[in-house]
Amino acid sequence: MENTVLEQCKAGIAAWQTAFNNQDAAGCAAQYEENAIMQAKPFGTFTGREEIQAFWQNIIDQGFADVDYTEVEWQPIGEDGYLLSSKWTMDKAFGVVHREHWKIQADGKARLHDDEFEVLGER
């Protein structure tokens, strides 16, 4: 079971990354639970898919693209999820993921329960 949970969580982040790199804000938001909370430092806190989609659309509209994750670490949390932490880069910025809580949903897919990341600088 644990491997299946981790595999689903990895599939979730891969789907989010593909959506972002395809400039698809709705696809990004679809990887979050309906009432997920996203803390995007220094921009603020965004609650629910609608606010989260608007945030990602704004980032995409500013020309940010090509996100990549490095030094990814997965830690199990409960029986149905994992916490991801990593560094990330985009074409125009870089930062860290402090905490992404990926959790298995009723449909068997992992989605973000909460997300906390920070922009550390421009490239």
Task: Walk me through what this model shows.
This protein is of the alpha+beta class. It contains three helices and six strands. A hairpin with a 3-residue loop joins strand 4 and strand 5. The chain is globular, with a radius of gyration of 13 Å. The model has no long low-confidence stretch (mean pLDDT 96).
List the helices and strands and how they pair.
Blueprint: H1 2-21, H2 25-29, E1 32-41, E2 44-47, H3 48-61, E3 68-77, E4 81-89, E5 93-104, E6 110-122
Parallel strand pairs: 1-6
Antiparallel strand pairs: 1-2, 3-4, 4-5, 5-6
> Which architecture would the CATH scheme give at its second level?
Roll
Percent strand equals: over 45%
CATH topology: Nuclear Transport Factor 2, Chain: A
H/E element string? HHEEHEEEE
Task: List the keywords.
123 residues; alpha+beta; Nuclear Transport Factor 2, Chain: A; 6-stranded mixed sheet; globular
In short:
The chain is α+β, with helices and mostly antiparallel strands. The chain has 3 helices and 6 strands; from the N terminus they run ααββαββββ.
